[in-house]
Amino acid sequence: MSSPDATTDTTTIPLGDIEPARSRHAGRRSAVALTDELIVVGTAAGDVGAYERSSLDERWTAEGTNDETSVVAATPFAGGVAVGERGPAGEIRLHDAATGRTRWRYVTADDVGEPQKRSRFFLPFVVDVETSGDRLYVAARRYERDGDDRSFRSVVYAFGTDGDVAWTYETDASPIGLDVDGTERSDGRRAAGDEPNGRVAVAYNRCPGDHQHGVVVLDAETGTVQWQWDPGTAGQRRVGDVSLLETGVAVASHGDYRGYRLGAGGAERWVVDLATPTKVDGETLYAYPNHVHATAEGCVFVTGNTYPEEGRETASLHPGEHTAFGYSPDGECAWSASVGGFAGEIAASGDRVAVPCAQQFRTRDPATHGLHVFDVQEGRRVEHDAEGIVTTVAVDERSLAAIEEPVVYHDEGQRRGAYRLHAGGL
């Protein structure tokens, strides 16, 4: 188990008032991104605000227009900040970084369909936004249910700087994340056997329909499928996350609770057990690997909640739940560290990985609320405690920014924390 080198000194500002989270997770409703000069926040009220990195003074605010909408994804793009919503329109927008003015917008509900119900999990959802050069890549989905039958409609988009759609890739599966690489290697060359440069890797966590691949790697320029991969397990659950490497990808598998390193074309290089079914107090328990970040120096996987093979409730915990695992490039476990609670996302910059920690809904221990920063090779480096739950984070070589949300556990009734932005140096 790794020990932290330091805690972060942060500056904090309030973001208004929202309904507190409860014991169980309600899904994403906030976003944060870093530009050279700004911290940009997307809120549960649908607003987008920009704050000076040095002082947290407000630069501008773009108000939301719909009470049902929250801003759940954000990234710098083309001299602005691209944001994605969960809401009736599932809108994507590009805000000018200097003024907040909307330069263009796109309604994904026109493609994925109108919500079956006007409740949170049925609303069109912009899952992820990523950039590379002059392209913005977006994954959006919509969920519906008929009795026990679940179905999805989803689209991966490539946008130009003016908001024109360069290509789309549509499926009946549920995308959970994207990773994108650039059009050139850092040394400007391609080694023999390298895959074509310019890739978009898409992770699909549920595949209830015709699409049966947990990972799809697309050509970034054309949207053409380069190759596909699946853990080959029964059921709808497939992949929690994917991270591109110079050749191949690393995968957090929902299907068999393992971590994979795949080479060119999806050839398996190594596989490791992360939170596979384990007997604890007479029950067989497992946990989903939800996140992965990989570099040439190694891979970091992060696992989520414990579940029993029979039913949904258990009083026991899987020994590998809510854990960050660091693996060397050849698949040897270098370190592991508890993150305490559920991480709805991670953020990374080079070999640095930031993990926001929300509630552990089975033990409901507020001491686990906080933020952890790991080095791919060395493990835990920095941690920051929070009164409420930390739900989203952005990190670069200079600093980090994270959003805390209030929480009320169902068996306590006490409100912990507040809706606020934390920002600090590294």
From TrEMBL:
Sequence segments annotated as region (Disordered): 1-26
Domain of life assignment: Archaea
SUPFAM superfamilies: YVTN repeat-like/Quinoprotein amine dehydrogenase (SSF50969)
Residue intervals of the Pyrrolo-quinoline quinone repeat domain: 45-229
Ranges of Polar residues composition bias in the record: 1-13
Coiled coil, from the record: none
Pfam families: PQQ_2
Signal sequence, renumbered to the chain: none
Listed name of the protein: Tup1 like transcriptional repressor
Organism: Halococcus saccharolyticus DSM 5350
